[in-house]
Specification:
The protein has 93 residues and is of the alpha+beta class. The protein folds into 2 domains: 2-55, no CATH class; 57-92, no CATH class. It has helices at 2-5, 19-27, 48-55; strands spanning 35-38, 41-44, 57-61, 68-72, 77-81, 88-92. The strands form 3 sheets. Strands 1-2 form a two-stranded antiparallel sheet. A two-stranded antiparallel ribbon has the order 3-4. It binds zinc ion. Residues 62, 64-65, 67, 82, 84-85, 87 line the site of zinc ion (ZN).
Length: 93
């Protein structure tokens, strides 16, 4: 299984049996399975390139203007400058 082979931790939900998961899927407007929810992003179908890209990044809200910033994971502490408000901060990735 792709996600396991990659060593990603994930939670699998069966929308045929799990009504909460089914409602969540409907609320997010997901129309097909398998669907992958990574942070705030949704990938429908096993689009490995897209999943890889999302798994290598994380979404962080700018502490100043709350803009969503997509930042790499696992790079230690990096200095981030918000492209929107130019606020600079250090972030543990
Ligand atoms: Zn900002």
């Amino acid at each position: 299984m792709y996600l396991q082979n990659k060593g990603y931790s994930f939670e699998e939900k069966d929308v045929n049996k799990d009504m909460d998961a089914r409602n969540d899927m409907i609320n997010r407007g997901i129309q097909g399975v398998p669907a992958f929810i990574i942070g705030d992003e949704v990938v429908v179908g096993l689009d490995t390139a897209k999943i890889e890209n999302l798994m290598r990044h994380k979404i962080v809200n700018c502490p100043s203007c709350n803009a969503k910033l997509r930042l790499p994971r696992g790079k230690g502490t990096i200095k981030v400058t918000c492209p929107k408000c130019k606020y600079g901060f250090n972030l543990e990735t």
